[in-house]
Each structure stands twice: as C-alpha cells, then as structure tokens.
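User: Run a structure prediction on this.
Assistant: Running it now.
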Amino acid sequence: MKVYVFGATGTVGQPLVEELTKQGHEVLAVSRKPGPEKKGVQYVDPEPANMKGADAVFLLSPGGLADQYSVLKPYLDEAKKIKPGKIVAMTAFGVEFAPEEVPLRKLELEVLNSGLNATILRPNWFMQNFNSYWIQGILADGKIYFPGGDAKAGFIDARDIAACAASVLTGTDYSGEGLGLTGPQPLDHNEVAAKLSAATGKEIQYVDVDPEDFKVSLKEAGLPQDYIEVLSGIAAGLKAGQASAVTDSVQKILGRAPITFDQYARDYASAYQS
C-alpha cells in the first residue's frame, strides 16, 4: 500500500512514517524539509498533485495556523479526485462539539461527507508538548508555565496517535467514525510536574499563569495573533475541564493500553537536561 502522509516530519508524522514502513508500506512523505533517507519513503513537496497514486491519505492540521480548513481544503479536493481507499484526518479532542464554522469542525464535516472511506482522529493534548512547546521554561528554571488551573487532561503520547493512524489507514474499520484519542489517565499539571521530576531527577514545578500573560509569552515567541487566540481558547477549554475525559479508543484500535505518562517521561528524560 502507498500512503500519503501530510506533515511527515512532525511530531505525529515522523512516528507514523516509521510505523508504516515497518509494516512494509510505501510512504509519500509530505514535507517542506525532507527527512533522512529511508527505504520505502519518497519525500514530496506539499503540493496536492503529489497525492497521485496514493492508496490512503493522512491529513493533519499544521501548527501555527488558525484557519486549518483553508490550508487542507485543496488536499481534500485532490483526494476526492483520486479516490483513495482510505482517508484519515487528524483534528483535535472535542472538535465535534464546536460550531460548524470553526475551521477544524468544518474540515471534519467535509471529510465525513466527501463520499470517501473516511475516519476522523481527535487526539487530546500531546505529552510531547512538554518537551517542545513548554520546554523553554523547564530548562531555564524548572517551571511549566501554563494557564491550566488544577484541571486534568487525558494527555496522549504522539507515538500512540501515530500507531492508531497507521492501523486505521491500512485497515477497514472505523469508516465514517470520529474517534477521541487519549492516554490512560487524566492528569493535572502538578501531577505532570511530579512525574517529570521523578523521571529526570530535576525539580520541576507547575506555575498556573494568568491567561493574558500566557498570550504575551506566545507573542514574544513569535506566534501570529490569530493563532495565539486559538491556543488561548484551547487552553481555556482545558482549564474548564473539557480535556479531562479518557476514552478506550487506543485500546480498541491497537489491542493494548495507551502509553502512560510515566513511560513517556522516562523515554524523553534526556530532552529535559539543559
């Protein structure tokens, strides 16, 4: 099978490519910056026309952009033309409850109504956010700065998201379904800090920052204002408890329990050493 993977060198795309090639599939790996050469992987520019010949298509919303629908619409249109055997779109946890005009929800609806064999994957907050988006504060002074209050979230390891995507892309189940993906237990940020401390040997603490200060820090990091509003809104949703649910989707798809936060922390411990 030949699988078209959008965002192939990203947090989910990279392990997805690895999983697909391990299973013996060919990958059309979409990326502006090609990764290392690998058997079975052909890197292609992010042009919809390069989807030609794909048996299955994986789309995800690129980071840093507020209007994900406009970005991905040309790729969905191309998929409608070539009619792959499967299309999987990764959106975000809880998007099914958003108004239809919200870009990701608009994308979901168009994918599900495309006439294609389609599945939506909606992962909760990534465990890997802590070694990427929030790593600067951790390395600088041992602090996780986030406006999450004491709310819990069903953090999921991106490797589980990739494994679920590989299974759904190459299988026949879950057509027309939207699946919420979470880790095995909801955790608040104080619990996350304690687990990272235990795994790394560093004292890491959580600081519940003011939402407006959070926006300022994102602006200082160079993010565009429209995306800052998106991230701030999602963070507010977490603080309101909207990310606390835990589902059994990973167990159903993979036949095993999701990766625990403790395992993630041990596997990524070196990322937290300054």
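The mean pLDDT is 95.
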